[in-house]
Amino acid sequence: MAVTQLPPMALSAVSDDGGATQGILRRQALRESAARTYARALPIVPVRARGMTIEGADGRRYLDCLSGAGALALGHNHPVVLEAIRAVLDSEAPLQVLDLATPVKDAFTDELFATLPPGLAAGARVQFCGPAGTDAVEAALKLVRIATGRDGLLAFTGAYHGMTAGALAASGGAPAASVTRLPFPYDYRCPFGAGGERGAELSARWAENLLDDPKGGVPDPAGMILEPVQGEGGVIPAPDGWLLRMREITAARSIPLIADEVQTGVGRTGAFWAVDHSGVVPDVMVLSKAIGGGLPLAVVVYREELDAWPPGAHAGTFRGNQLAMAAGTATLAYVRENHLAQRAAVVGRRMLERLRRFAAGRPQIGEVRGRGLMIGLELVAPEAGPTAKAGGIAETGAVTEARTMAEAGTMAEAGQAGSPARVGPAARVGPVADADWEGTSGGTTPYGASRRAVAPGEVPPCEGAWLTGAEGEGTRGALSGDARQVLGGGVSYAGVTRTTAPSADPALAAAVQQECLRRGLIVELGGRHDAVIRLLPPLTITDEQTEAVLDRLADALDAAIRTSGTRSRSGEVPPAADPFAPPFTGNRH
């Protein structure tokens, strides 16, 4: 793929002193609401964009790893998207038709169904919703409640499903009597203090036991909603085997499984849909963002047997957006025909490997994790000790109690920000997306997912990523189940002790974001404490752009670490990069 370039901007559109930019930003601050978010951290005024490059009103150019929060699978103003939009405009077709049938809508539906998991596409129905993912979530919750006659909902800690009332109720941290919150397998800060396969197994057992407990206090669930990779929650991939286990648990109890693929869909994670990694076929899929090619569009796709709602049960004026459907058709087809999901897997793995090498000497980078081109770096304060949260209960105590009970074969609840151990100096490596663990065959996980065989006494790959040798190198060695024993705030594994993860460092993350911006790189923050640097580049990112992103991010991290007064594990301040370097303004990227 050719490097995306922008031709020189007309001088009349550029302020040579940035005065126009400051004036626009000042008027925005005076006139827009206090609820604005991105504009506070990213004080830029975009005037043109192509591919991965954004140009501001002051003439500065940036590499965009935000991509409209993942909505721009092909980057800005991709030619196939622009061509599709112009074709609709030139045809004089109606732009807004409510839910009437049109050739544009028919073509979009054909292309969408061609990409769906075959087990769902064969008998699927689609509901076009208001043009936002949160409305599609509302529609999905309404659908399963009508179809089942039940009102309860199963959701997960750390989840984010949107900003409307029902979607918020299903998101992590929102109190709602009809929503039962289950522990998501957050490997780095496992609520059970176990992590890896063991932590995921305990999460699944918790869900199953709670549903089967007549005194569990769970309202009869109409559905279970989950994200295959928690995005806003901190880029936390769900283990494939755990997803299969959730499918088994819900299917056995006639509970519809809802996969929220608003951000993970259309090749983002290295498969067209994130559920494709595990082979899970959900009953309902919530889709938005990239399916509209950068324009507002949201749908719910579901099994036809759930299609029990009456006419008008869910409606919306702008559910007939013809431009978005045309752009979406072009985007879906381009991603499919050009195998961009597979490319995202390759490029994402390469980015993860380089970031993990970079993190190995910097304790401020607690974990590098992700899947495909959905990547996160969790930043921590190594000297501050474990995070204290969960209603005033010190997490070390809560986690120790949960770990003790878990190791004894029982279940105990701990705060969602509970911390698993990190061993030795090496940063955590995100075992779910580990190259040695994905795509292998033979053997099974505790949930029946196909994986390579694990010899007796050997550490399963996901758990092996937790262990480090005496030299601080990541190792995978033998581990006897009998060797596990609780030792205060950690767990001993064959002589290696885990300690609780350090506190999140949102101040450092904010500093890194600003240092990135100064170097011409746009990144997003996320996670429980806004301490995760998130990378969501377009699927069309070139090799040259990939290297530029990694170089700028590494420089920004070191500059922010140096400014914060923290030091690398070696005790030396990382080599200086000019912290005042202007954003890149050339045409290479």
UniProtKB/TrEMBL annotation:
PANTHER family: DIAMINOBUTYRATE--2-OXOGLUTARATE AMINOTRANSFERASE (PTHR43552). PROSITE patterns: AA_TRANSFER_CLASS_3 (PS00600). This is Diaminobutyrate--2-oxoglutarate transaminase. It is an enzyme of class 2 (transferase). The keyword Glycoprotein does not apply. It comes from the Bacteria. Pathway: Amine and polyamine biosynthesis; ectoine biosynthesis; L-ectoine from L-aspartate 4-semialdehyde: step 1/3. Pfam families: Aminotran_3. Its EC number is 2.6.1.76. Residues 432-456, 564-589 are annotated as: Disordered. Belongs to the class-III pyridoxal-phosphate-dependent aminotransferase family. CDD domains: OAT_like. Its cofactor is pyridoxal 5'-phosphate. Keywords: Aminotransferase, Pyridoxal phosphate, Transferase.
